[in-house]
Amino acid sequence: MNVGICGYPGSGKTTVFSALAPGARPQKGVSLGSIKVPDDRVDRLAALFHPRKTTYAELVFVDVPGEVGRGVGAFHPQVVQAMRNSDLLVHVVRGFESPYHDTPPDPDRDVALFDDESVLLDLAILEKRAERWHKEAHKGLDVDVNERCVACLSEGRPLRTLDLDEGERATLSGIQLLSLKPLVLLHNLSEAAWENAASAPLRAVSRPAPRTVQMGICGALEAELAALSPEDQPEMLAGLGLAEPARNVFIRVAYDLLDLVSFLTCGEDECRAWPLRRGWNARRAAGRIHSDLERGFIRAEVYRLEDLEAAGSEAALRVQGKIRVEGKDYVVQDGDVLHVRFAV
């Protein structure tokens, strides 16, 4: 899953990128980084299997390139394409004085401008689509959904605010509509603003709109924290009055917005967590491991980690009848341990 970090010049988005994806090096153009999703279930499996490797689920961060020049607004085509290639957008909103701007930070203005530009780009695409279908006398659900989307955008509302069921949303697949993507409004605050009680509403995680989460971060402090060794981080966290790094909070927010769960695989070679869309079946889960497993799927043997820990081994678990055999349509649950049987 790709997380696109966007922001107007001077918003500090590259600093935020460094804080969320420690170790990644920003560069010209699109920068990539990743963050491991903390999961004690992987550690618990590793304690039982003693594998050669343990692998955690990851989120891939894309530092979307900045605008051309120093002005605010008018997404550059390179920016637009990078945003469209992302599964989740993070709009870094400036909350500090910046050398790029002569005016104080104005989060409401930047949020509104970001939405307006996304809406106009999507509207241009869907209006052309509607014109083509009108000439072709095309009818169907896709036309109806397109009309609803155009009406929504014409009112200046992002598509993420529109109530679409799974079938209706499927008619828009492949178009990469910006205002339909889930969004994190990430307020990047100065150290002084972070410590100011008046900033509490911006620091707290909230849901100001459908498929939108707002949260705050002091990018400069979090980048400094991310550069420390794991052993030194607790002392700085305690000094800041924080229970955990902001990236841990962000991971939970991202998983929620992307509607992700994690399933597990284990063995002597590797114990691993795999991110998966909630509601996906066992066959699609097998495809996350390898395309051959999805293509030749026969069945999945499924059990729960807590049952394994209680039994002590898979052999004992099998004797107890707690390893289930599931078919391709089984809906994988968060924390399921899977062994996929396949033939190609």
Keywords:
Rossmann fold; 2 domains; 15 helices; single chain; alpha/beta; 3-stranded mixed β-sheet; 7-stranded mixed β-sheet; 344 residues; Ubiquitin-like (UB roll)
Describe this structure in words.
- It is a single chain.
- By secondary structure, the chain is α/β, with parallel strands linked by helices.
- It folds into 2 domains: 2-257, Rossmann fold (3-Layer(aba) Sandwich); 279-342, Ubiquitin-like (UB roll) (Roll).
- Helices cover 40% and strands 22% of the residues.
- The protein contains 15 helices and 13 strands.
- It has helices at 13-20, 40-49, 77-84, 107-135, 141-154, 166-170, 191-195, 200-203, 219-226, 233-240, 246-258, 282-289, 291-295, 305-311, 314-319, and strands at 2-6, 31-36, 53-55, 58-63, 88-95, 183-189, 206-209, 212-217, 260-265, 270-277, 297-304, 324-326, 336-342.
- The protein has a 7-stranded mixed β-sheet with strand order 2-4-1-5-6-8-7, sandwiched between helices.
- A hairpin with a 4-residue loop joins strand 9 (260-265) and strand 10.
- Helix 1 (13-20) runs parallel beside helix 9 (219-226) and helix 4 runs antiparallel to helix 5.
- It is flat and about 70 Å long.
